[in-house]
Amino acid sequence: MRILLVGAGGVGSAFVAIAARRDFFETIVVADYSLERAEKAAAADSRYAAAQLDASSADAVAALCREHRITHVMNAVDPVFNMPIFDGAFAAGADYLDMAMSLSKPHPEAPYEKTGVKLGDEQFAVASDWEAAGRLALVGIGVEPGLSDVFARYAADHLFSEIDELGTRDGANLVVTDDDGNEIFAPSFSMWTTIEECLNPPVIWAGDGTGAGDWHTTPPFSEPEVFDFPEGIGPVECVNVEHEEVLLMPRWVDCKRATFKYGLGDEFINILKVLHTLGLDSTEKVQVKGVDVSPRDVVAAVLPDPATVGPRMKGKTCAGLWVTGKGKDGADRSTYLYHVVDNEWTMQEYGHQCVVWQTAINPVVALELLSRGTWSGAGVLGPEAFDAVPFLELLTEYGSPWGMKEL
Fold first, then answer.
1. What is the chain's Cα-based Rg?
2. Closest Cα to residue 297, out of 192, 214, 140?
3. Residues pairing with 406 in the sheet
4. Do residues 323 and 181 lie in contact, with contact meaning Cβ atoms separated by under 8 Å?
5. What backbone torsions phi and psi does residue 170 show, to the nearest 5 degrees?
6. Is 388 helix (H, G, I), strand (E, B) or coil?
7. Which of 7-11, 293-297, 333-337 has the highest mean pLDDT?
8. CATH 3.30.360.10 fits 147-352, yes or no
9. What would the pLDDT profile of 65-97 be if each residue is shown by its tens digit?
10. How far apart (Å, rounded) are the C-alpha atoms in residues 60 and 88?
11. Which of 15, 29, 75, 106 has the most CB atoms around it within 10 Å of its CB?
């Protein structure tokens, strides 16, 4: 297996640190727009090489794949670049993985009721081309989406006979401080992506539990609820957010409802609302003193780089799936399957903060399963299309076990 990793930011750098301890691949070419950043990440292992890449060019992606005889392209950049990377991998005859799918576009007349272009629609539109070519695009294989989708497959196969709701719930008690120990606002993940998913209309699946159903939207931050997260994190208010799980899970797992709720907190929600009010969430470029800039790019640039906040971060993050319905015995069941990561542990063990590390470990596990032939397929497929048990077993073998509790 010869892997092209596109993106040497927080998640990409954590990816190479995790993969360096495994032996399932021949080489990883770490590519980034900044060659210096790619070289820094590639220094983690003698099997790695660095390259400069413009991820907005499918031709450039394809050329780099051919140059290095790449078999698998791992996309670790903001999803605005998904389609050129996706298309470049296909043109070069490589398989493809990403952690966030092609971007959505709200419905032009009824954005908070009807879906427009949904997350992943551009990729699913060419699924037959990938299948005919015998190539695999494994989409949404981070932690959320990714591990949460593996949990959905596991719940359907081993825990539930009927599923009422697949409810992804994400929460944390992370705190970032400045040099003087004062708590500061510093998102632990890409601010560009966070703005995208939090301010777009959230999508909800409503079905009959036998595969029939459809997606609809609600206003941002709708349906607040307090969810009690495990392992000391405790109660966190969660709200509806646009996310890939809701678009992926119902394609392979029968359920009556699918949701994604994120524990943002009042401060974060207020900041996002202000950014939207001021137009600072826009990706359309405006001219400032003769220079064309995207407001959202400016916001992301002035905040601390998520890859650098680890030493000043404390707490845990939890990704998980709350499943309700009927158990295999026919009785009512409510179960939370989850994965908790402590920032102190990831910093000490890997030198990377817990949110990017938790995201990065899952595609490494998936690639190892693909290298073994344990997972295989063709077309555009989500994690739900594969057996969950080998994934969860290998995740535990990596030293990061998952948990489950009845609610």
1. 20
2. 192
3. 335
4. no
5. -120, 125
6. helix
7. 333-337
8. yes
9. 999 999 999 999 999 999 999 999 999 999 999
10. 7
11. 15
Per-position b or e across 231-266, b if 16+ CB within 10 A of its CB: eebeebbbbbbbbbbbbbbbebbbbbbbbbbbbbee
Query: Model confidence at 188, in pLDDT bands (50, 70, 90)?
Result: low
Strands 379-381 and 316-327: unpaired
Side-chain-side CA neighbours of residue 77 (13 Å): 23
Length of the chain: 407
* CA distances from residue 92 to 82, 133, 372 in whole angstroms, order as listed: 15, 11, 22
132-187 pLDDT, tens digit per residue, is: 999 999 999 999 999 999 999 999 999 999 999 999 999 999 988 887 778 777 67
Interval 332-357 mean pLDDT: 96
| Cα torsion through 87, 101, 198, 405, rounded to 10 | -160
> Where along the chain do its domains lie?
2-98, 147-352
Quickly list H helices, 234-286.
Answer: 244-252, 266-278
Q: What angle do CA 201, 202, 206 make, to 5 degrees?
A: 125
105 DSSP 8-state letter: B
Give yes or no for a contact between 143 and 262, defined as CB atoms under 8 angstroms apart: no
For 268-281, how does the pLDDT look when each residue is reduced to its tens digit (9 = 90+)? 888 888 888 988 88
Over residues 313-333, mean pLDDT: 97
Distance between CA atoms of 291 and 358, rounded to whole angstroms?
37
Stretch (H or E) spanning 229 = strand 225-229
Supply the angle between the helices 354-372 and 343-350 in degrees, to the nearest 10.
Answer: 60
How far apart are the C-alpha atoms of 74 and 7, rounded to whole Å?
9
Strand blocks (E) in 263-314: 286-288, 291-293, 313-314
**What's the pLDDT at 88?**
98
User: In the predicted model, what is the mean pLDDT of the chain?
Assistant: 94
In the CATH scheme, what is the code of domain 2-98?
3.40.50.720
What is the C-alpha to C-alpha distance for residues 262 and 244, in angstroms, rounded to an integer? Answer: 13
Please report the pLDDT score of residue 161 as a whole number: 98
Residue 161 CB contacts under 8 Å (≥ 6 apart), including other chains: 325, 326, 327, 328, 330
